[in-house]
Structure formats: structure tokens, C-alpha cells
Amino acid sequence: MAWPFSQRNAQQSEMEVVAAPSTIPKSGRRMAALPLRMSRSYDAGETDRLTASWTTTPLTADQVVDRNQRILVARSREQAAKNDYLKNYFRLCEQNIVGHRGIVLQAQSKDLDGSLDRSANEVLEAWWKTWGRAENCDIKGRRSFRIMCKSAVRTAAKDGEFMFREILGKAAPMGYALQSLDPQRCPVDYNIDRLPDGRFVRQGIEFSREGRALNYFFMTDDPGNSGYTFNGQNLERVPAGEIIHGFLEEIEGQRRGLPWAATSLWRLNQLSGFEKAALVNARTGASVGGFLEWEKDEGPEQDEELEDEELMIEPEGGVFQELPPGLKHKAFDSRYPSGEFGPFHKAMLRGAGAGMGVAYVSLANDLEGVNFSSIRQGVIDERDHWMDLQEWLIEALIDRVYQRALERALLLGLVTNGTVRLKPERIAKYRNVFWQGRRWAWVDPTKDIESEVTAKDNLLTAPSEIIRKQGRDPETVWKTVASDIKSMKDAGIPEKFIMAAMGQALGAKAPATQEESPNEGND
């Protein structure tokens, strides 16, 4: 069958025909079938001596975790204790995901007419603040909820996952508390393939046939709470409904987390050794050192008794040692680390920072040579990454804790300010909340503020959105402004100076406060 011209050309572009001269047929004879060697479309698809150690078999999420998780966690914990850059990365995670104020609750309960129920929102926010104290939220009574959130972030970054157990009942001072768990107590190598009803155990977690977590197994030293054993270790079976398990799922079907710095650990470990060797070499080169060399025919006669005796120079600042006749000093001049140390060191840290999602200037604390444009772009990209992780923490931990704690508190009558007590049957109304994460100062405050004001004046944004971008609650800001105006009026400050302080023209009139305008409706 003859190929069409275009198809024949396509065939020839994908294959190379290999034929020996003797196999070329004579004119009029039909060409015999010749061996063909396929040419791959991608260089990464080639299998040759250069790619012999490169895997060619896709691994499932379970296989990746089974083979690497324990080793990666062990090395991540080791580097976290001794590597300055990795320790700085974990500190950046805590500071930028949780921050010094934590993830702030802004209750958004509304009445039937759509207006905010301010009294209920104030009660909810006051109750949440009280529950977040160490004596209430931590079953051990040692850490506040903000510190527990920072611990969850650090554990997830270092170990790849965090775990908390929810404690209900009398053991919790306000009916609900958290117990932090070491994820490595849940054995990642504990697997059972077949259980009744299609259930199975993977990496220390029991799943239903559909893949929903049913129970977690944790190693325990108390045989009284253990009904299972694995490798001689007692295991405690805990219902999945009591466990909060958070991790970033990078592979479809992943059941356990991997350290966030997994791709950077090897580079950081090698870089640490490189720095140490360079530092030792620099210290050696800075000392007075070298070799002692005898001039020709000046050396001592061979003597078995003095054969093992060594001549040494002990360096001492400002002192030159006199040498015997015929003996000269040959200096050892170590010039490393030299000029190539800095560029190579930066290149390694840039690669590590890219794998962890942080800018080089943040990871290395190096602002040398940074200009406004480059740092602005780098900061914007990095802050988007931090805000994404903030939402992950809210979804995986904070919002779930709020909803579960609210249920118990409403039933126990704890959500009250003494005069207003919120009712359990209205819990759907009280579930409506907004979580305000940490925000950052503008890179160029003057230009950024002018841009925000212009956007507001052209109805492209709202004043409340501008306030939220700073990590603050609009309701709180407005109440503070009204309180300041009232305090300045009570102090006898003229209105024109008050308006000047508020950024208004001197001829403008100060707005009336809530006490001065009782006829205005409240939202």
C-alpha cells in the first residue's frame, strides 16, 4: 500500500531507517523490512547512559511516602537543629502564616434583615478570645491557641504534617480542648491490606473501602489503653473524628505529609559542610603556619633515637621564632575561600529558597544589591504564597476548632457576656465568621497608599478592603476613630484641628459621633 506523500514524510520524520549497504535492493525488487529506531519527542524521555539512574516507573503516593517519609523527617529534624538557613525558614513560616497576633476572628453574624448583629458578634469574639487562653484550649494548660497554631505550622514544615486530638467533656475546662500529638507516633510503616467490609490500614490510618479515614493508630507506652501491637510496640486506636490531621497534598491519593523542605534538604546539608570546610580553611590560612625545610647538606645526621623527633613552630601573635642554622620556613598560603565562594553560595541558596517557596533575600537575610523593583516583585510573589498557606491553616485547623468549640460552648451556656447569652438553636447564624490573617506593610507606603485611595475614589475597592489588607478589623478601626474624635472633643480641641488630624480640610466640620446622632439607625 502506498503512503500519501504528507503521511510518508511524517513517518520518515519520526523514524530513522537503518540499513547496511548489502541490504539495499536492486532496481525493480521490493525492499525488505528494515529495523527501525524510534526517536522520542522529549529529551527527558530518552533512556541512555546519561539517564540510567533516572527512574522510568511512576510511583504512587503510597510508594513515595513509604520509601521516603521516615528518612526525610529524620533528616529534616536533624537539620532544623543545626542548620541556620532551615531554622530561619521555619521562623519565616511561623511569622508569616500565623504572625504575632495570630489568625484573628471577625464574627459576621447577621439578623434577618441582613444587618450585622453587633452585640452577638462582640460576645462571640470575647468568648473566642477567652477560650484561646492556655488554660482553656490546651489540655496541658501550657500553650495558647496562637502558640498551638505556630506549633502546627512548624511541625507541618518540619515533619510534613501536624496532628491534634480533640478532647471533649469534663477534662476540658470549657468543654473542648486540644492535645498536640507527634505525627511520628502514628507508624507510617503499619499496613494491613484486607479487613472486613473492605477496610484497610495504610501508613498507620484505617480507611473505609471508599478511602475515608476511620481510625488512627498511635504508639503508646500504656498497655491498658492498647488493643493492638506492631513490632513489639503497643498501639492505641483512636477514632478519626477525634483527630485533626493537616498536611499539604502534593500527590493525588496522598495519605501522609512530607517535609516542606524535602527537595532542599540535601542541598542545605551539603552547603553546611561546604561552609564549614571553607571556614576551617580560612582560619588555617589566617594563622602563621607552613613547613620547615633544611637547606642542602644542612640537615641533621640520621639518628635512630631522634628519628621520631619533630620540629614545630608554635604561632603566637607578634612573635617570630628563631630557627637553627640551615633550617628555613616555607610558608603555607591558603587563599580559599576566594572570589568564587560568594556567587556559588548565592546560587545554592537561591535553589533552596525556590524549593521552599521563599525569596533568596528572606532566606539568606541578604539585601545587598537589591533595588526597589526587584524586592517589590519578590515580596509580592512571596506574600501570595504565605496567604495561600494561611488559608490552608484556616481550613485544616482553625475553622474546624472554632466550629467544634462553639457547639460545646453554646450547649454549656458559656457564650455570654453576663447580660447577653447566645442560644444553641441559632448556631447556624454564629457559624458565619471571617478569619483575618497577618498582612504586611507596604513596600513603598506613599505610592501604595495613593494607589489605594485612587482605587477607593473610583469605586474599585471599599474602605473595609483597604483596612483588611493591613490585617485589621474595619469595625474595630471605625470604632477607634469615633472614640478618638469624641475624646478630642471632650478635651476641648477645636473641630478644625480634629479634622486636620483626621486628614480633612481645616474648614470641614467634624462628623457627629454615635452619642450625638441618636436618631441614626444602627446596622
What does this molecule look like?
- This protein is of the alpha+beta class and 523 residues long.
- It is 41% helix and 13% strand.
- It has helices at 5-14, 61-82, 84-98, 118-131, 134-137, 145-159, 265-286, 341-356, 360-364, 372-412, 427-430, 445-457, 463-469, 474-490, 495-501, and strands at residues 15-17, 36-38, 104-107, 161-168, 176-181, 200-202, 205-207, 213-220, 228-230, 233-239, 243-247, 290-294, 327-331, 433-436.
- The strands form 5 sheets. It has a 5-stranded antiparallel sheet, with no helix packed on it.
- A hairpin with a 5-residue loop joins strand 7 and strand 8 (213-220).
- Helix 2 (61-82) crosses helix 3, helix 3 (84-98) packs across helix 6 (145-159) and helix 7 (265-286) packs antiparallel against helix 8 (341-356).
- The longest helix has 41 residues, at 372-412.
- The protein starts with a helix and ends in a 22-residue tail after the last helix.
- Mean pLDDT is 82; it is low at 1-21 and 518-523.
